[in-house]
């Protein structure tokens, strides 16, 4: 197994209500999961292959709770990646170089698709990403229904497998491809991730 490490920013959007029960080991809002995440890799490596500055995205769906498995995934890799970088990212995203027992095992095996995309993350719990003709997504803060002001919430997971702390917002996504769905004003998360072959780096 090749050792690897990735540090960067993530924006994720799924079909659950704000807060996402899955983050609390409860059942998903609608009994199943549809979600996606885009990653801006600030620093990373897979063996001797550097991954700094690349983007990637994962689109997923599970027929029930994530921990029951049986899901499918579709990974998109930055077209700027070299063949070695592409292969390294796909091995990471598909869990092929992840230690047995890591919670990352719940991520489904992926179909391969490459496409160029641009992602922009901004302060204040805002994000935008577009993958030409495949994905459009945006994230915004939750708004107080009485005052209209921004409502700020964080989820902290000392023993989590994806992030240690995330700012929670809301998101809109439209996916057209091997896995297709539309999300409107549902759970969104803004996080810095630090992952390796053993799971989350603490």
Put the structure in a nutshell:
The chain is mainly beta and 202 residues long. It has one helix spanning 83-93; strands at residues 4-14, 33-46, 49-50, 55-62, 72-77, 110-114, 117-122, 126-131, 135-140, 142-143, 150-151, 153-156, 165-175, 181-196, 199-200.
How would you describe what is shown here?
The protein has 202 residues and is mainly β. The chain has one domain. The chain is built from one helix and 15 strands, in the order βββββαββββββββββ. It has one helix at 83-93, and strands spanning 4-14, 33-46, 49-50, 55-62, 72-77, 110-114, 117-122, 126-131, 135-140, 142-143, 150-151, 153-156, 165-175, 181-196, 199-200. The strands form two sheets. Strands 1, 2, 3, 4, 5, 6, 7, 8, 9, 12, 13, 14 and 15 form a 13-stranded mixed beta sheet that branches. A two-stranded antiparallel ribbon has the order 10-11. A hairpin with an 8-residue loop joins strand 12 and strand 13. The longest helix is centred in the middle third of the chain and has 11 residues, at 83-93. The chain is globular. The mean pLDDT is 87.
Topology readout:
Elements: E1 4-14, E2 33-46, E3 49-50, E4 55-62, E5 72-77, H1 83-93, E6 110-114, E7 117-122, E8 126-131, E9 135-140, E10 142-143, E11 150-151, E12 153-156, E13 165-175, E14 181-196, E15 199-200
Parallel strand pairs: 5-6
Antiparallel strand pairs: 1-2, 1-14, 2-3, 2-4, 4-5, 7-8, 8-9, 9-13, 10-11, 12-13, 13-14, 14-15
Characteristics:
202 residues; mainly beta; 13-stranded mixed β-sheet; two-stranded antiparallel ribbon; 1 helix; 15 strands; 5% helix
């Amino acid at each position: 197994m090749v050792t690897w490490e990735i540090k960067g920013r993530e924006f994720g959007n799924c079909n659950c209500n704000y807060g996402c029960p899955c983050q609390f080991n409860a059942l998903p809002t609608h009994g199943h999961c549809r979600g996606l995440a885009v990653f801006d890799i600030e620093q990373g490596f897979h063996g001797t292959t550097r991954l700094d500055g690349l983007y990637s995205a994962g689109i997923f769906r599970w027929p029930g709770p994530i921990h029951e498995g049986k899901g499918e995934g579709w990974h998109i890799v930055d077209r700027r990646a070299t063949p070695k970088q592409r292969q390294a990212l796909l091995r990471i995203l598909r869990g092929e170089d992840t230690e047995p027992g890591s919670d990352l095992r719940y991520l489904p095996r992926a179909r391969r698709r490459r496409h160029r995309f641009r992602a922009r993350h901004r302060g204040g719990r805002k994000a935008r990403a577009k993958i030409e003709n495949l994905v459009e997504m945006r994230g915004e803060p939750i708004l107080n229904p009485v005052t209209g002001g921004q409502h700020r919430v964080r989820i902290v997971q000392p023993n989590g497998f994806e992030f240690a702390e995330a700012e929670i917002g809301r998101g809109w996504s439209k996916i057209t491809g091997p896995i297709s769905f539309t999300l409107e004003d549902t759970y969104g998360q803004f996080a810095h991730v630090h992952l390796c072959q053993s799971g989350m780096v603490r």
